[in-house]
Input
Amino acid sequence: DHTTDRLSPRLIDRSFIVILPNEGKQNESAQEKQIQPINWEYLKATFSKGDIEKNTLKNYEDLKETLEKVNIPLSYRSDNAIRKYIKSASYWMSKSTDCNKASRSGQTIALDFAIAQKALPFIDVLGDSYHVALEDLAAQLENFELTKSLDIVRRIIKNGSEMDDYRFFKF
Output
C-alpha cells in the first residue's frame, strides 16, 4: 500500500546497514552512564591501523565479480568504504572473542561485516536466474568463511524462492 518506501540505492550507497538483534529488552544501565567526549586525534589513530592482506583482497575481488551477477556492481564510493572498513576494523576484530574462538582472522571478520552491511543491502532482484546467482554467492561466502553474510544470503534465498523475488529488505 506504499505506506513505507524502500531505501533508495543512493542512500544504501552512502550508508552501512546494520541489523540489530531483536532481543526484546532494553539496556537500562546505559541510561545511567555518562558519556565522555573522545579526543579526535585518538579516534583517528584508533581507526587508522592496518592494511588489507593479499588473501583478503583476493577474496574481496572474487566476491565483487560474483556480486555483479546478482546485479550489484559496487560503486567507487561503496568499494572505497569497504576497503577502509577492512583496514580499520580488522585490527579490532582480531581481538574479538569470535576471532579467538574460531579459525577466522580479523581480516575475514571485517570483510564479512563489510559485505553484510555494505553490499548485501543492494540485493533487490526478480527472476529464477537470480536464484542460481544467489546460490553461487552463498557457496562462495561459505568457502571464504563469511558466516554473517552467508546467513543473510540464505535468508534472502529462503524468503524469495517461492515467487523468485529476492530482496535484502524482505523479512
About this structure: The chain is about 60% helix and 5% strand.
